[in-house]
Amino acid sequence: MIQFTLWDIVSHLLIGMGWTVGLSFAAFILGSTAGMVMLFARISPNPLLRQLAKIYIEFFQGTPLLMQLFLLFFGLALMGIDISALATALIGLTLFTSAYLAEIWRGCVESLPFGQWEASASLAMNRWQQMRYVIIPQAVRISLPPTVGFSVQVVKGTAVTSIIGFMEITKTGTMIANATFKPMLVYGLVAIGYFLICFPLSAFARRVERRSYATYMR
Amino acid sequence: MQLICVDELHKSFGDLEVLKGVSFSVKEGEVVAIIGRSGSGKSTLLRVLNGLESFGDGIVNIDGKRVSGLKADLIPLRLKVGMVFQQFNLFPHLTAGENVMLAPKVVKKESREHVTELAMEMLERVGLADKFNAYPDQLSGGQQQRVAIARALAMRPKVLLCDEITSALDPELVDEVLEVVQRLAADGMTLIMVTHEMRFAREVGDTLIFMHQGKVHEMGAPEELFTRPQTPELASFVKSVL
Ligand SMILES: Nc1ncnc2c1ncn2[C@@H]1O[C@H](COP(=O)(O)OP(=O)(O)O)[C@@H](O)[C@H]1O
Ligand SMILES: [Mg+2]
């Protein structure tokens, strides 16, 4: 039997943590992009588009992330598509993130006074110009705190991908715990790892929240 | 020449008929004041002229073009018809200057230098050249409304619609806005103003329209209507507001 020193444990966990950060970051970036597309569909004047976006969002908000990953993982395998745990995790988290962000952002867009739409329309702006120059810049400001806040959920969501075998920090921790019989130590370290990622994010979210109160109307 | 021709205009919200056959016309350079009780359809009428509301039966002609209700015709219509709202509706994330520049820049694709000059000129016209870099929340209500007027003027509309543009203002701020409108009128701008300022309607308006229950109830020279109302409805309205 191999002997694990504390440093062995920590260094393996650090590698897993790197994957957690990388996966979170990639899922957040891709999810934001897809989320922007979903937002436009969700508030489109076209009722069919709106309905499709609504179903998409409700599916991802209404089912556990774990279920979504299973469906993706086994569904793709059934279709004969061979895909790595990383790719599955990334696709799953991206879809999950896009649905939540689209809904968060929709709330921000709809919280703007209707007069902003009317004033820009009366100036002969088309819908795209209204969004681009009037609505989105204001919505972005109010969406910053909840968006940063949601990024914490994405980080925690990556833990679920351990189930399909992706070697992020939780999966790494599980394997080390099984090998060393020191679950409390290992999972304690894993928890600290998550905290180190999430705490700065939530602190940042609180700061932008305070700041956006200060410049509330601008 | 007739700039605006409205004939038997009808408009309903669901089962509620709000405009019940409105007809009137407006000449170039004419200043029309619209008065009437709350709920008589004044705002709805203005919003139809600007394409913010669709309408049912009737014909609306603006600058020789029939308003169709087709989406593709909305932009050309709004290029001719500017609007100022009761609640100002300035864009809070932009400075006064940027508020004025935005539409000429992105809609008309005018050059940066040109729109900067244009915005300066328009803000000067409303007496706010020194507020070019101020944000709306740094301006008083009266100043915000004047920026909103400058913003609409920067699109060089053929007619400017004003929907109770002084109703949200503190009393001491009303006059500075009315003075701006009065200057516009003197410069020959075609104006349609829904207003509660009777003195203004009487002195600045060329034509007065009294709306009552979704119809043009009386229309004519303001002085004439105020001194010799032909219907008991206008008579009692005039009495209630004077
Ligand atoms: N979007 C709307 N939906 C339903 N009813 C409306 C709407 N807008 C206005 N109305 C109704 O139409 C009538 C006329 O309103 P409006 O044109 O705002 O009158 P005014 O400006 O003369 O006070 C009112 O009874 C009002 O409740
Ligand atoms: Mg009104």
UniProtKB/TrEMBL annotation, chain A:
GO terms for biological process: amino acid transport. This is Polar amino acid transport system permease protein. It is found in: Cell inner membrane; Cell membrane. The keyword rRNA-binding does not apply. PROSITE patterns: ABC_TM1. It comes from Desulfopila aestuarii DSM 18488. Residues 17-205 form the ABC transmembrane type-1 domain. It holds the Pfam family BPD_transp_1. SUPFAM superfamilies: MetI-like. GO terms for cellular component: ATP-binding cassette (ABC) transporter complex. The chain crosses the membrane at residues 20-43, 184-205.
Automatic annotation (TrEMBL), chain B:
GO terms for molecular function: ABC-type amino acid transporter activity; ATP binding; ATP hydrolysis activity. SUPFAM superfamilies: P-loop containing nucleoside triphosphate hydrolases (SSF52540). GO terms for cellular component: plasma membrane. Keywords: Amino-acid transport, ATP-binding, Cell membrane, Membrane, Nucleotide-binding, Transport. It is found in: Cell membrane. The keyword ATP-binding applies. PROSITE patterns: ABC_TRANSPORTER_1, ABC_TRANSPORTER_2. Residues 4-238 form the ABC transporter domain. InterPro entries: AAA+_ATPase (IPR003593), ABC_ATPase_HisP-typ (IPR030679), ABC_transporter-like_ATP-bd (IPR003439), ABC_transporter-like_CS (IPR017871), MetN_ABC_transporter-like (IPR050086), P-loop_NTPase (IPR027417). The keyword Flavoprotein does not apply. Its main location: membrane. It is a peripheral membrane protein. Belongs to the ABC transporter superfamily. This is Polar amino acid transport system ATP-binding protein. The lineage of its organism: Bacteria, Pseudomonadati, Thermodesulfobacteriota, Desulfobulbia, Desulfobulbales.
